[in-house]
Backbone:
């Protein structure tokens, strides 16, 4: 017996075919989430959100139409199918479109992505997690004037996809994230930091660790200083490595960006683009991974794809459109933000294979350099040029942290950054779509002041 979402999807596909669609696809989702936020050490807002809807993609020849509705009522779905068909007939044919995925490819079920305990989590229990994190943070800051922002979000839902080529799939998922952001004052000096955790399972969340670690980090960033600039080593801690590689490399290996000539690694497939120490896989079947799923946003089976091995670019990330356009294998990386959007391409779990040494050990091996805990900047995707402000970081000399940094920039091209990776640490952590340890870059331009 089909689940309710799959039955609704099949009805929508049947209707689209009756209206003349040569191919059709229905993507459906239902979800429930709690989000609770705190400011100035107390609860500010709590809300529960329930969402459900369906997106309909129809193809007439090589013309494509799309429409969605935020309900699962029969009349609204019929209207969405009608609108999608009208848009398809009115659109310009896409010569590069070949076909939607079919059901011939075998697939493996994803493990560890649904947690019954998290699915049944109440708003009161969610609030309790947030209070525990805040209390732990406060307990480490009793000597300083401080204010704490924090939030916790938990979600549970099911998504389903049905198409006219035989794909009929659905899957349940849960997720929870929690963070604290303490702001502290010491005389005239004020600083802040943050820490977070994200998981598919409730028992993997430790609010006390999140709160305590955020407080310790904030204290460590007091009294920051500028430094003399120049060429020096950069140690990206896991969050910093995730920012640089997650935005700076993951987007560059998006097949659509490469095919459009918008990536700095265009025409580099099969070439050595990085240090031999760097190995990256995109693993859509990682047990319990934040990006783990049995199938992608078009219903194609998830897989483990070797992206970089011993520094060589082995594969791009594809959905059905880019794979068919290039006549290569689909890697199962179709994604969409919700039922309200068309498929794009994104990573699942973008994993940097670990090496040796944690953050402290890597720091001890630096003669002179900077540590970048995080940055909000991204490289220019076309040129690869990166100018990244160190959001939180330290100056290191003779293997020891000297002080926190302020107004300090890292300048380097991504091609050079990848080739100059001299060490890959063992301190891997999950940062939403990435799993990465610390990495060390030999020779970037540092400016400060």
Residues:
């Amino acid at each position: 017996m089909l689940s309710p979402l799959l039955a609704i999807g099949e009805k929508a596909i049947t209707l689209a075919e009756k209206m003349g669609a040569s191919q059709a696809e229905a993507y459906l989702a239902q979800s429930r989430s709690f989000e609770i936020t705190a400011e100035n050490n107390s609860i500010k807002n709590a809300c529960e959100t329930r969402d459900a809807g369906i997106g309909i993609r129809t193809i007439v020849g090589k013309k494509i139409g799309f429409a969605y509705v935020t309900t699962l009522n029969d009349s609204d779905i019929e209207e969405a199918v009608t609108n999608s068909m009208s848009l398809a007939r009115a659109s310009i044919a896409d010569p590069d479109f070949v076909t939607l995925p079919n059901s011939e490819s075998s697939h493996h079920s994803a493990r560890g992505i649904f947690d019954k305990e998290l699915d049944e989590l109440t708003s009161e229990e969610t609030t309790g997690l947030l209070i525990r994190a805040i209390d732990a943070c406060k307990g480490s800051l009793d000597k300083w004037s401080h204010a704490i922002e924090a939030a916790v979000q938990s979600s549970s839902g099911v998504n389903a996809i049905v198409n006219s080529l035989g794909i009929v799939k659905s899957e349940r998922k849960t997720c929870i994230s929690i963070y604290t952001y303490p702001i502290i004052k010491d005389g005239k000096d004020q600083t802040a930091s943050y820490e977070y955790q994200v998981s598919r399972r409730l028992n993997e969340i430790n609010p006390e660790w999140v709160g305590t670690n955020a407080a310790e980090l904030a204290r460590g960033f007091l009294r920051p200083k500028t430094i003399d600039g120049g060429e020096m080593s950069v140690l990206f801690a896991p969050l910093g490595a995730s920012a640089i590689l997650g935005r700076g490399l993951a987007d560059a290996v998006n097949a659509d960006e490469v095919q459009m000539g918008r990536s700095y690694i265009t025409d580099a497939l099969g070439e050595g683009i990085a240090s031999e120490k760097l190995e990256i896989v995109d693993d859509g079947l990682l047990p319990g991974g934040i990006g783990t799923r049995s199938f992608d946003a078009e219903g194609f089976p998830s897989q483990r794809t070797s992206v970089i091995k011993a520094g060589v670019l082995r594969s791009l990330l594809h959905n059905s459109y880019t794979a068919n356009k290039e006549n290569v294998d689909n890697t199962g990386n179709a994604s969409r933000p919700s039922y309200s959007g068309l498929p794009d391409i994104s990573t699942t779990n973008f994993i940097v294979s670990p090496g040796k040494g944690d953050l402290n050990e890597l720091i001890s091996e630096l003669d002179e350099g900077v540590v970048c805990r995080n940055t909000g900047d991204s490289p220019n995707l076309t040129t690869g040029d990166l100018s990244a402000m160190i959001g939180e970081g330290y100056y290191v000399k003779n293997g020891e942290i000297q002080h926190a940094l302020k107004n300090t920039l890292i300048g380097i091209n991504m091609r050079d950054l990848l080739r100059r990776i001299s060490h890959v640490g063992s301190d891997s952590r999950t940062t939403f779509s990435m799993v990465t340890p610390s990495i060390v870059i030999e020779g970037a331009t540092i400016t400060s002041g």
The chain is about 25% helix and 35% strand. The two ends are 66 Å apart (CA to CA). The chain has two domains: 4-220, 224-449.
